[in-house]
Amino acid sequence: MVESTKEDPLVALAKEAVEEYVRFGRTSDVPTPVPPELATRAGAFVCLKSRGRLRGCIGTIEPTKPNLAAEVISNAVNSATEDPRFFPVAADELDDLEYTVDVLGHAERIDGPEQLDPAKYGVIVESGHKRGLLLPDLEGVDTVEEQVDIAMKKAGIFDGEPVTLYRFEVKRHGG
After folding, report:
1. Quick one: pLDDT at residue 42?
2. Does domain 9-104 have CATH number 3.30.700.20?
3. What number is the average pLDDT over the span 32-38?
C-alpha cells in the first residue's frame, strides 16, 4: 500500500503498480470505483529515476486502455520491466526509485520547428511508418534542434528524410 496520502494519485498508482509487479509478479487492479481524475482517457508516460538517473520510461502517445488509471498501471509496469535500454527493475532497487507521470494532451500538427518550445511542448516526428516522441522540459534538452534530433534518432529517421511534426503539452505529476 502507498504510505502517504499526500502523494499525487497518479504517482502513487505508478509506484504501487511497479512494486506489486516487481515484488509479487502481479498486475495491480484499477481502483474501484475509478476516481474521477483517473477515469478520463489519455496517453501517458511513466518515467523512473534511480539516484537522479533515468531507470526506465515507457508510455503511450494515445490512450490504449479504458481509463487513465489502467494506462498508468500498464505503462508503469512496462517502464520497470520492458524499457529496452535497461535491465528489469529488481526488488532491491524499489526504495531508490522516483516516479513521474506525464499525461499527454492532444497532439497537433505544426508547420515547422519554429512552432516548438522544448520547455513547453513535447514533439512527435513522423516519416512514413516511423514515429518518435520526446517529452517536454527534459534536463539537457534546451533547443528545438536538440529536441527534434533526439526524437528523430529514437524513430530511426535519418537527416534529410522528410518529417511531419506534431506538438503536445503534458501535465507532469511527480518529480
Report:
1. 96
2. yes
3. 92
Confidence of residue 159 (pLDDT cuts 50, 70, 90): very high
Kindly report the CATH number that applies to the domain delimited by 108-174: 3.30.1490.150
CB atoms within 10 A of CB 166: 19
Cα maximum dimension of the chain: 51
Residue 166: which of 71, 63, 60, 61 has the closest Cα?
Answer: 61
* In contact, 140 and 100? CB cutoff 8 Å: no
Q: What pTM value is reported for the model?
A: 0.90
Report the run of H or E that residue 75 belongs to, with start and end.
helix 68-81
Let me know if the fold of 9-104 is the same as that of 108-174.
no
Sequence-separated (6 or more) residues with CB below 8 Å from residue 118: 136, 137, 138, 141, 142, 143, 144, 146, 147
What's the pLDDT score for residue 6?
A: 72
Neighbouring residues of 79: CB distance < 8 A, sequence distance ≥ 6:
14, 18, 46, 47, 48, 56, 57, 58, 59
pLDDT band at 4 (very low <50, low <70, confident <90, very high): very low
Distance CA 156, CA 151 (A): 9
The residue ranges of every structural domain in the chain are 9-104, 108-174
Instruction: Give the containing element (helix H, strand E) for 80.
Output: helix 68-81
